[in-house]
Each structure stands twice: as C-alpha cells, then as structure tokens.
Amino acid sequence: MSVFLFLIDYLQRVNQFEVIIVGGGLAGLTAALDLARRGKQVLLIEKNKYPNHKVCGEYVSNEVRPYLQKLGLELNTMSLPQIDTLQLSTSKGSAIEVELPLGGFGISRYKFDNELYQLGLNNGVEFLHETAVDIMFDNDEFQVRTLENNSFKSKVVLGAHGKRSNLDLTLKRRFTQEKSPWLAVKCHYLNTEQPANLVSLHNFEGGYGGLSQIEEGKVNFCYLVKYENFKSEGDITSFNEQVVSENPFFQNFLSNSTAIFEKPQTIAQISFHRKEPVENHILMCGDTAGLIHPLCGNGMAMAIQSAKIAADQVVNFLENPNFSRTDMEGSYKSLWNENFRRRLWMGRQLQGLMMHTKWFNLGMNTLANSKTLVRSLIRTTHGTPILN
Ligand SMILES: Cc1cc2nc3c(=O)[nH]c(=O)nc-3n(C[C@H](O)[C@H](O)[C@H](O)COP(=O)(O)OP(=O)(O)OC[C@H]3O[C@@H](n4cnc5c(N)ncnc54)[C@H](O)[C@@H]3O)c2cc1C
After folding, report:
1. Is 48's C-beta closer than 6 angstroms to any atom of ligand 1?
2. pTM of the model as a whole
3. Degrees to nearest 5, angle at CA 159 with 269 and 109
4. How far apart are CA 380 and CA 369, in angstroms?
5. pLDDT tens readout for residues 331-359
6. Which of 23, 168, 288, 328 is in Cβ range 3.0-4.6 Å of 28 for a Cys bridge?
7. Residue 8 Cα to ligand 1 middle (Å)
C-alpha cells in the first residue's frame, strides 16, 4: 500500500465510530457516558465549550438520581439543595404548597453539564466542539458533516441537539414549520429568603416563572412568557417591574435579591410541538424528541431517561446480531411512547390552555387553589425512579 493510500485508510478509520451523538446537553452527555462505560466508541459533537450557562429552571426530579449515581455522578458530595415542596401562586398572590412525592435537587446547568462532561472525558468519550450541519444515512451507515468541514462515520447516530437547531431544518422536521410564541428568561441571584427545600411556581400576565435554590445558596429565577405579552414592555427590566412584579412573590423576590449575571439569558421560539422519536434512522433523545412544558417540571429527567433507553437499544443492536436496526428503532420508539407520550400529551393540553390569557389565568387560579389537582398533575407528568 502506498503512503498516500495508507494515510487515506488511516484517516477514514480515525473518523469512524460506533456511535456519534450530536448535541452535548443532558441527553447527549448521559447517553455518551453510559455507552462509553459499556465499552462503545463514542464521538460527541457539541458546538459549545463547557462549562456554559443554559436557560433552564434547574430543578431536577429525583427520578433520575439513582441512574446518575450509577453512572458515577457523586451527587451526595455536592452539597446541593434537596427540594421536597412545591409552591404555586396566582398572579394576585394566592398560594398553596404541596409535598413533592419524589422530590428533587437544585443544580445549575453550568455545573451539571460540566460534571457529566468531565465524567465523559474520564470514561473515554471523544468530544468535538464543532457544529453538525448534516446527518446522512446511506448503505447502512451514517455520515455526519460539520460546519468546519469535517466528516465522521458511524453505525448509529443519536440526535440530542435540543429544542430547536439548524439540524432540524436540514432534516426537514415537521415542527420547524410551526410557530412557537414562547420566550424564556433566566438569571441567577443572591437571595437569603428562598427556602432550600422549596421550588416555587408563580403566575403573571401571559406567563409563569420559577424560583429555586441551586448550589452555593444561589437562586435560579427563570420564566416563560408569550412573546406578544413580552413585547408590550420591550425589555426585561421593565417587563420584570411592570408585569412580573405584579405577583407579590416576584415583587418581594426581585426587590430583595442581587443579580449575579451581568444580564439575564434569553431564548426565543421555544417549541412544544409534537416531534418523532426516530427520524431518518436517527434515535432522537431529550428535547430533540419532545419538550414538555416546564410547568410540568421534569424535562431534564425525561431527557436523561430517554438517553438511557436509547443507550440500552444501541448496545443491544451493536452486540446482538439478531437485533436488527429495524428492531432497535422499533423498540426505542415504543419504549419512548410508553414512557413519555402521556406526559407530553398532558403538557400539550396545558399549553393549549395557556395560549389564551383568560384560560391561562383561570387555569393557574384553579391549580393554585386545589392541592388535589396539583397532586394529580404531578402524578401524570412524572415517572418513577430509574433503578437499573
Ligand atoms: C424556560 C425553561 C425552564 C425549564 N426548567 C426546567 C426545570 O426546572 N427542570 C427540568 O427538569 N427541566 C426544565 N426545562 C427543560 C430542560 O431544560 C430540557 O428538557 C433539557 O435541557 C433537555 O436537555 P437536552 O439534552 O435534550 O437539550 P439541551 O440541554 O438543550 O442540549 C442540546 C445541546 O445540543 C447542542 N447543539 C444544538 N445544535 C447543535 C449542532 N448542530 N451541532 C452540535 N451541537 C448542537 C447545543 O449547544 C446544546 O448543548 C426547562 C425548559 C425551559 C425552556
């Protein structure tokens, strides 16, 4: 073999993986870590460097605690706030508190994603900080191209590129045609009044927001609002003063807190539309397969659980000659539907309600006045702990 052919052959082999994961948020990082710990060659393509902040309420349901610990994440030594109570209030400030059956913990995405990234590195996941622009499937093999003009091949691709990405347009996914009127804002604050065991959800005109502690006693304040309501004020400062602060809980919080970020983070066009868990032979995980309304409170746990389900199917496909690609895709799809379809359906019903300000306020009022309803909503939108 000539030196040239040897070089080509070498380059083709180093760009070849068993699994490529596109997107290194919670779904991508967990799937990569799980697969690498089971001896699979994994390339994770993530456009941003770690650590970085993400718009999120940062309350994690305990459903995924045992699984995360099994993957090596030492949650017990991180001194994180343990949350066991949910508080809900109407825009006028009438409030109820209910116990959360499973509870959860508070951790910033800055820390959470970075801890999983470090574990991934230690377990042999290969990371590439580039933007994937295309995923092609041909001849029983994937080819993933990046903006930086690199190309990689694999037997399996997991799509974990989040709520909305350039890739969804390339892949012509249906939800990209639909309008998404939601905008989200997040900031961390210094505040001594937010109890460590409480996650609070408070309503205001056209939206709702949450308060909960994360590491080092800092408090996450994150809210979701319909763009048409937000644009009447034009900027975050006056929206917080004029609209958000109409709720006495937020008014009290904002006047007794100091923002840690120079300016809040925002994201627009958040889509809660229906998506498919398998498209173009790609197994979609986390928000790439469907985002639940944050009011239901456990998108992160769902992202992590979907990653685990995908990893299980991928290992079976790679190790068992009798488990075909069709079996892998079919089994992922049916397990995904079994675990998440009902929760997402409930989220979409709530969303339908929230698209109309009058019904939204009425809905929040009803919830904030009925512990039974809130408990039933929690039951419908949460799963049980993942134990193996
Ligand atoms: C306002 C709001 C509040 C929320 N609050 C909570 C909460 O309190 N608790 C909870 O459990 N859930 C909450 N959620 C939901 C939660 O944030 C998501 O479900 C979770 O982040 C999903 O993780 P993921 O890995 O699927 O996506 P992400 O964490 O978004 O990760 C996707 C990754 O893909 C990368 N990427 C995208 N495109 C490309 C590309 N082309 N090439 C390479 N990389 C790419 C991105 O950079 C990103 O890192 C909230 C959501 C919103 C909108």
Report:
1. yes
2. 0.94
3. 60
4. 18
5. 999 999 999 998 888 877 776 665 565 77
6. 23
7. 37
